[in-house]
Amino acid sequence: MNELFIASIRTLDDPVFYKQAYDAMSIQRKEKIDHYYGSDDKKRSIASELLIKEALNSKVYELDELVHEFGPYGKPYLLNCPDFHFSVSHSNDYVILAVSDKKIGCDIEKLRKYDLNVAKRFFTTEEYQELLNCENEEERKKLFFRLWTMKESYIKYTGEGLHCPLDSFLIETDADGNRIINKDNKTLFLSESDILNDYCISVCSPDKQFETRIINLK
User: Fold this and answer.
1) How far apart are CA 134 and CA 58, in angstroms?
2) How far from chain centre, in Å, is Cα 20?
3) Which residue in 16, 90, 152, 194 is a FRET match for 108, CA 20 to 30 A apart?
4) pTM of the model
5) What is the pLDDT of residue 62?
6) Non-local CB neighbours of 168 within 8 Å, separated by 6+ positions
7) Domain boundary assignment for the chain
8) What is the pLDDT of residues 188-218, one digit of tens each?
9) How many CA atoms lie within 13 A of 155 on its CB side?
10) 78 contacts 84 by C-beta, under 8 angstroms
């Protein structure tokens, strides 16, 4: 079963809780947090590890220390828990974590101003045309970020990141209305969550179902 954990970083605005959370971070995570300059960037990094710990606890994993390793293109995994697959993404006030017993990818984006030329440059011809076919600008903006998060979730699934050009694969719709990617003789589902207003969330996985959990970090 795929699971999606969602948390707001605003609970970390409390300086007492922030210190408690920071002190509980792994050595690797503290080094990463200390590298950031912006306070919200630090909070997003803390929230990421808190969600990973929450997910591990829910699956009855007990690890003294989270030891991260990275794939050839930088995708993180837990060296001491290789069957725990995860993907992290953040945007503005929220951090999300998708977990599974197999490869998974996720992405979140807050709706904001966008440039249609970005889609013309990075999307496939079919995806760009789908945007042009929207009835109004509000619908077009929402679709842009839906497609963007789907594409980001896919390249996080593969672990290639932007080494995989966004126009090298096509987001399709199957006969049941599911958004999918067919590539390398494999079908992947691009499932969405609209649980947060003004945000788009996508999860890429061989399974289309996932359970969503809102987590209070405190």
Assistant:
1) 41
2) 25
3) 16
4) 0.95
5) 66
6) none
7) 2-214
8) 999 999 999 999 999 999 999 899 999 999 8
9) 18
10) yes
Spatial contact of 10 and 106, defined as CB atoms under 8 Å apart:
no
CA distance 26 to 28: 5
- The tens digit of pLDDT for each residue in 100-137 reads 999 999 999 999 999 999 999 999 999 999 999 999 99
Q: How far is CA 99 from CA 14, 59, 153, in A?
A: 28, 10, 13
Indicate the length of the chain as a whole number. Answer: 218
CA atoms of 193 and 15, how far apart (whole Å)? 31
* Type of residue numbered 134: C
pLDDT band at 55; cut points 50, 70, 90: very high
Q: Which superfamily does CATH assign the domain made up of 2-214 to?
A: 4'-phosphopantetheinyl transferase domain (3.90.470.20)
Interior CA angle at 103 toward 102 and 107, to 5°? 130
- In sequence order, which residues have a C-beta less than 8 Å from that of residue 72 and are 6 or more positions away? 159
